[in-house]
Write a structure and sequence with these properties.
The protein has about 150 residues and is of the alpha/beta class. It has helices spanning about 5, 20-30, 50-55, 60-65, 65-70, 75, 90, 110-120, 135-145; strands at about 10-15, 35, 45-50, 100, 120-125, 130-135. The protein has one domain: CBS-domain. Helix 2 links the parallel strand 1 and strand 2.
Length: about 150
């Protein structure tokens, strides 16, 4: 099994796209993450849904989970309001990471190793310098487990 057999069209966002729009896209399409592209359409990062959460959840709640319990429901329900006006660029990890990108001929094991090494729920598939889609963790596991 090769990446081309698991390939799916994947929505993309730009670095300066509103992060709230990225969050909506993740939720509406039940995606594990999004491919972030440069102006020329080349992948530059993967934005996992967890990174959007990191931007939305106050740092003090991430540092001390006990503090998250004291925030009342009315305020907890407004966490995503703080994402308005912020960009995808702000949601990306500060330190550079290996970009999970491969070609359509990558094997299932190569995809799995790349996902594991980069801790990414999806891999961008590029052919002849052009993004052709992505392979998600779910698609890979479904196929490998015979689901």
């Amino acid at each position: 099994m090769r990446a081309r057999d698991l390939l799916a069209v994947s929505p993309v966002v730009g670095l300066d796209s509103p992060v709230i729009d990225a969050a909506r896209l993740l939720a509406e399409q039940d995606l594990p993450g999004l491919i972030v592209v440069a102006a020329d359409g080349a992948p530059v990062a993967i934005l996992p849904g967890t990174q959007v959460l990191r931007l939305a959840v106050p740092g003090y709640c991430q540092d001390d989970p006990a503090l998250a319990r004291v925030v009342d429901e009315a305020h907890a329900d407004t966490l995503f309001d703080d994402l308005h006006g912020r960009t995808v660029r702000e949601a990306l990890p500060r330190q550079g990471r290996e970009l999970p990108v491969t070609d359509p001929d990558a094997t299932a094991l190569e995809l799995a190793a790349l996902m594991a090494r980069t801790r990414s729920p999806l891999v961008a598939i590029v052919e002849h310098g052009r993004l052709v889609g992505a392979v998600t963790l779910q698609a890979l596991l479904d196929r490998m487990l015979g689901s």
